[in-house]
What does this fold into?
Amino acid sequence: MIYFIGLGLNPPYTIPWEGVKLSDKCAIKYLDNYTTKIDSKLVDELKKQLGAEPAGRSTLEDFNKIINLAKNQDICIYIYGDPFIATTHLALKIEAIKRAVAVKSIYASSFLNALLGETGLHIYKIGFIGTLLANDKPSALYIYRNVKRSLEIGRHSILLVYSGDNDLTLKEALGLLISAESNYKEGVFGPSAELIIAGDLGKEEEEIITGKIKDLGQIEYNHRIFVIVVPAELHFTEEESLHTVATGNPSGNTVKTLLRQRTEQIIYKTTKAIDSLTTDNEITDLIRNSELYLKDASEFLIKGEEETALMQAAYSEGLIDALRFLGKKNINWQDVE
It folds into this structure.
């Protein structure tokens, strides 16, 4: 049998009692030191208490070896936080079940439930969750696109910071996000982007700070394990909680969807085109209809019905462009953009 045992956020104090007792039962005991890098002092303490040997990537991803061993003896895998936040352990669990090896999960606290509990962010407002990797520009670009999509629908993003063999400082992590901004230039991680940083959750050293990305990169933040939250617009209870527990002046971020940007552009240039026209009786009704479509488009934008707003704006633009097409008016769209 394979036991997947969470250590919680502040081991050895947060290890479930069942997980401690299993250390006497299991013939083989691994301490995951791959998906989360554990402080060397804590590794020594857990080795002494649980008899578990630190295991790196090569050991933990050798599914064949672990599963074959588990056919004849019990194996304990101790994992920082909750057992299945890291997909490595979930993949091993599924493969073991497929090969008729029994598994059991001993759950513990994770960064996710602690983050929500400590900051007051609402679970139903969580969108994208991703991992920011050291020295990995593609991961930062992938994060950029997904954070933008989450902000467009009013959802918070949570970024796990993974440093590999070397610690990734807050300044270095923010540098990766700023670098992604220089590629896309859509304002997701611009200088005024608001972030929440939560370090050492569940421990006495826990620290939660908020601020703009340009300011956070200048401070000393001495936490090995931390997460970055990119908040969307905050509910008033979320804002109240953050004002209570965090330093800084917390606020959320908003970005415009491409639909909204395109609709606003059409409304702007069509309005300018109408203003530039000299009206006569022949086209008065057409212009009036175009203005009504623009009014409807603006109202639908306010309601958040962006697809309908774009359709109304396009109708308005089409009516005015028909005047140019029929030779009734000389309209140069480039001049009104």
About this structure: Residues 2-109 form a domain with the Cobalt-precorrin-4 Transmethylase; domain 1 fold (CATH 3.40.1010.10).
